[in-house]
Amino acid sequence: MELFQYPYMQRALIAALVIGLAAPALGIYLVQRRLALIGDGIGHVALTGVGAGLLLNRSPVLVAVIVATVGAITIELVRSRGRTSGDLALALLFYGGIAGGVMLVGLSDANSATLNAYLFGSLTTISPSDLITIAVLGTAILIAMIALRPALFAISHDEEYARVSGLPVRTLNLLIAVTTAVTVTIAMRAVGVLLISALMVVPVATAQQVTRGFRSTMTAAMALGLFAAGSGVWVAATADTAPGASVVLLAIASFLVVAVAAGVWRRLRRRATPAAAPTAEPHEVVLGSS
Fold first, then answer.
1. Is the C-alpha dihedral spanning 24, 157, 149, 160 positive or negative?
2. How far apart are CA 20 and CA 198, in angstroms?
3. CA separation for the pair 96, 159 (Å, rounded)
4. What is the pLDDT of residues 12-50, one digit of tens each?
5. Quick one: 251 exposed, middle or buried, by C-beta within 10 A (0-12, 13-18, 19+)?
6. How far apart are CA 171 and CA 179, in angstroms?
7. Average pLDDT, the chain
8. How confident is the model over 263-280, as a mean pLDDT?
9. 106 Cβ partners below 8 Å, 6+ apart?
């Protein structure tokens, strides 16, 4: 714990905790809409923004936010108009984003260490200005996901019903797309563009093993994300491992433990519950001949 006396470790811990709360709060809507992998696609687009920022000597995070937001809005418009399938649109994001990012980073003067910091995260290099950006945007995402929960749940569960009910479906869909892009970009320095999608999805999948209602699942997922983020930073600090990988591996370990425990608990409950007695058949009445 002595490492957390240093300012850079304190910034790393705070940034990880903010992202650990915000990512599952957004991810539950992505899981509900069967778009669990969209974070990966937007992350690859954000990498193109990082490359453009490095090439133009501009802030890589700021350029990545702009590029990722444009990409997220484009994919949402394509999806909503039905011009191509969601899988194809995500594939375009994956391949086009990673190819553009690698090409632009190669044209810039950046070295492999700089690229790895955005791909896999580099918590210890978070500056005070980075922390302010992460805290402000992360808090805004968290507030939006909680305050608009009824409307966002409605469009995630049944978009046609939400539209008939008078909800601004397109606006809400664009809001989810934009917040996904922002979440990915602010998490680049903490978890990395290749791993942030796991922090959006895995805590939600873990919570679904033991909860029933949407609100309880969201609360449990945020708590699990907070635990994975805080524990991951501690493990990374004490064992000298990559912070992003440590956070994600702890989230996956939590999923495995909860899934096994839930399965055992359900099996024990089935054994403890007595089998229902078979319903007695009505007695047959034999009528004798007169």
1. positive
2. 11
3. 29
4. 888 889 999 999 999 999 998 887 778 878 888 888 888
5. buried
6. 12
7. 82
8. 72
9. none
CB atoms within 10 A of CB 168: 13
173 vs 176: CA distance, rounded Å? 5
The pair of structure tokens assigned to 188 is: 């680049």
pLDDT tens-digit profile of 114-159? 777 777 777 777 888 888 888 999 999 999 999 999 999 999 888 8
Q: Evaluate whether 30 touches 200 at the Cβ level (below 8 Å).
A: yes
Q: What is the pLDDT of residue 288?
A: 46
Yes or no: say if 165 and 15 are a contact pair by the CB < 8 Å rule: no
Token pair in block for residue 104? 């632009």
Q: How far apart are CA 152 and CA 214, in angstroms?
A: 11
Mean pLDDT of 214-220: 92
Which one-letter amino acid corresponds to residue 2? Answer: E
Q: Confidence class of residue 284 from pLDDT cuts 50, 70 and 90?
A: very low
Report the distance separating Cα 39 and Cα 21, nearest Å.
16
The model carries a pTM of 0.82
What burial class does residue 283 get, using C-beta atoms within 10 Å of its C-beta: 0-12 exposed, 13-18 middle, 19+ buried? exposed
Structure tokens of 48?
Answer: 């193109």
Q: Which two tokens stand for residue 260?
A: 């096994």
Using DSSP, state whether 280 is helix, strand or coil: coil
CA 183: distance to chain centroid?
8
> Could you tell me the pLDDT band of residue 222, with boundaries at 50, 70 and 90?
very high
Q: In the structure encoding, which two tokens stand for residue 281, read together?
A: 């058949």
Alpha-carbon gap, residue 189 to 12, rounded angstroms: 9
